[in-house]
Structure formats: C-alpha cells, structure tokens
Amino acid sequence: MRISSDGKGGPVWLTSKEMQMTWAMYTPYFPAEEYVKPPSNCGITQINIIQRHGARFPTVKANEAAGITSALKKLQSVSRYTDPKFGFLKNYTYALGTDELVPLGALQSMESGNITALRYPELVSLDDLPFVRSSSSQRVVDSATNWTSGWFHATGERPPISVILLEDRNDTLEDNMCPNAGSSTTQTTAWIDVFTPPTAKRLNSKAPGANLTGQDVYSLMSLCPLDTVAKEKLSPICGLFTVDEFRQFEYVGDLDKYYSTGYGQPLGPVQGVGYVNELLARLTGTPVRDNTQTNRTLDSSPITFPLNRTIYVDFSHEHPLAAIYSAIGLFKQPAPLNPTQPDPDRSWLASRMVPFSARMVTEKLVCGDEKGKGKGKKKEYVRILVNDALQPLKFCGAGDDGLCELKAFVESQAYARTDGAGDFEKCYD
C-alpha cells in the first residue's frame, strides 16, 4: 500500500511499515518483535493471553463516527478544489458501519487462535481446552469466538470451547469501574491544538470554504486507517496527509492511553488491578484475592474461573490493556509524556502496545537452575510478551532472557495485591 506524491512538498510516499508506526490504536496488528523461544532447558506449562478485539468500524462512543462524518461533509461541501489530488472527494462515498468488527478484524482474531495452537503444541489437548472469556461488547465477543475458530483450524478438532461473558459491572476486562478517574481530553486537545493548525491551513487552502478545525483534521486522519482496515486497501483519504503529519497524529493516541488509564492518570493503573490479581491466581493455582473490579461470584466458581487449565484467553479493549500494563509495571517512562512536546525516545507507543488485536501473553515455565542453564532442581518462572516483544521484567530480577522466578514476580505485584494501595477507594470518594 502506498500514497502518491507530487514531489513538491505534498504528501510523500508511505510504506505499509511506516503507516503501522503512525496509526496509534488504529494500527492493524503486527508483531512488535520476532517471537523468541524460552531457553532450551525450560518448558512452558501455562499461558495467559489478554487480547484486544480486532479491527473495527468507527465507534459511536466519544463521537468518533460523528466527528468523521462532520469533517468529511465540510471537506466535500466546497464548490471547487485548488489541488487535483483532492478531486477524488467529488465521488468519494462514506459508507462505514459503526462499532462492529470489519472482516479484517475477524481474521486477525482467527489468526491469533491459529498461531497460539501452533506455537504451544505441548499445551494442546482435547482434555484441557483453552478457557476463554470476553467482556460484553459485541466486537469483543465476536473476537473471542473467532479466536476459537482459529484454534479449531490449527488443531483439526472441533470440541466445544465455551466463551464466558463477563457483565458490564464487576468486569476486569472493562475500564468503567472507577467513576472518579479523569480523562485524557486536556492532554490530547493540547497536542491537537499544537500540531493541526498548519495542516488545517493547508487543507483549507486546497478546499476553500471548508473551514476545517483542528479536531476536523484529527477526525479525517482517523478516517484514513479506519477506511483502510474496512476496505483492506489504502484509503484515498490517507493521501491528504504527509508522513510527518501522521507521526504527529500518532502522539494523540499515545497521550490518550497514557492519560486515560496509563501512568499519567492517577486512577489509571488501578483499573488493571483486578485482571492482574486474576493472573496471579492462575499462575499460582490459588483463589483470587481482590477487592477491586473482580466479579467474586464468577471468580469463586471452578466453572467460570477454573484454576487447572494450561491456556487462558481473555478479550477486551485497548484502555483496559493500558491499565494492565501500568498496573504490572510495563512501559514505564523516565518522565511523564509532555502534551505539547513528544519525546522521540519514548517507548509508550500505542501502535506497539494496543494495535487492533493487540495481545499480552504471560508464559509460565519450569526451568533448570540458573534460568534453564543448569540441570539441577527445577523452578517456576514467568515471562511476558506484548505483541511478541519480550518485556524486560527488571522489577522482578529478569535478565536478557526475560525470565523472573514466579515467586519474585508475585512479590513484585504488590500494587495489585494490595488492591491498588488505596487507589481503588479513591474511585468512589
């Protein structure tokens, strides 16, 4: 997929890889790094996957779809364009749905199920089927069932894999249980106000009378990836913007996740505590200990929260994922993200953390002494991968192999084990 260029200061060529790094949470899934197998003397005994739903249409929530249609109407309402590259707008028809998965989004989840079965053959057993849960949003439920289809395709078997649906209340796969948590609007608006004026001026000069605002620019830039994933070919809308403009666009998504449920939101990480405590329960084979957003009825039942499975898969949204990363201690930044000046060296990148169908995989392993190098008494370890990128778990003593002793990992999660160290109570003060 490419965008054409006139070579005179207009949009420059964009490759697919470049686009993936500039679409923030609208990025189609890609492995952030190549998957690295654990040391040869380690065996994987359990995996826990939490995955975002696949690519979707624009949402009604937060006026995403409405913002796009309003901005596009302004752009198409003018009587003439001063640049022939805008000519396609005369015949361009906006026909996207809302909220639901697009076909590519369904395929992404199927591929994930397929990859999981093939990557962990030692855990594939008809007597020990994956335990799959989903939050209640339809696109999330559909992603979960599509994952099971991919699993079936890889294993050649079609045993019944039930998808457990969590309720809107007391749901560790949602981010709606902290009413006092703030939003990222102040920070994202600040950056939109910084980067969009030159773009709005350029577009308005090409479409006299459109009177596009900074928010209109952001909405139109959002349409580029959403139209692309829906039609599975590069949207002509993308050609209205330059590489640098898309790189600036990316930062809106970074700020949004950081200040909504990430480290920049005082009550952000606590919204991931419930899932982390469920993860610890599965890793240790002990009942869930949590007083935050877990559903105690479901989590106390061996039917709806078993502790004897080798594969657990949960489906959610991008904001809960950001909260979970933050609760665990992943992707910490040396300084808070500046709303008006991006740090080019930041590792908090939405495109690598929460693209469509993003996934965090926590592997439980049994290894020999010295993290798999010896042949003595075996110990249990944990390592975490986000979109296949091995995470540096230095907070629990991991080296280059990413392995933490299970006990050390559990101890490192004091924030979750103490129900957010008092933060959860602040959600309702």
Automatic annotation (TrEMBL):
It catalyses: 1D-myo-inositol hexakisphosphate + H2O = 1D-myo-inositol 1,2,4,5,6-pentakisphosphate + phosphate; 1D-myo-inositol 1,2,6-trisphosphate + H2O = 1D-myo-inositol 1,2-bisphosphate + phosphate; 1D-myo-inositol 1,2,5,6-tetrakisphosphate + H2O = 1D-myo-inositol 1,2,6-trisphosphate + phosphate; 1D-myo-inositol 1,2,4,5,6-pentakisphosphate + H2O = 1D-myo-inositol 1,2,5,6-tetrakisphosphate + phosphate. Its main location: secreted. Monomer. This is Phytase A. CDD domains: HP_HAP_like (cd07061). Disulfide bonds join C42-C367, C224-C238, C396-C404. It comes from the Eukaryota. Keywords: Disulfide bond, Glycoprotein, Hydrolase, Secreted. The keyword Secreted applies. Gene3D superfamilies: Phosphoglycerate mutase-like.
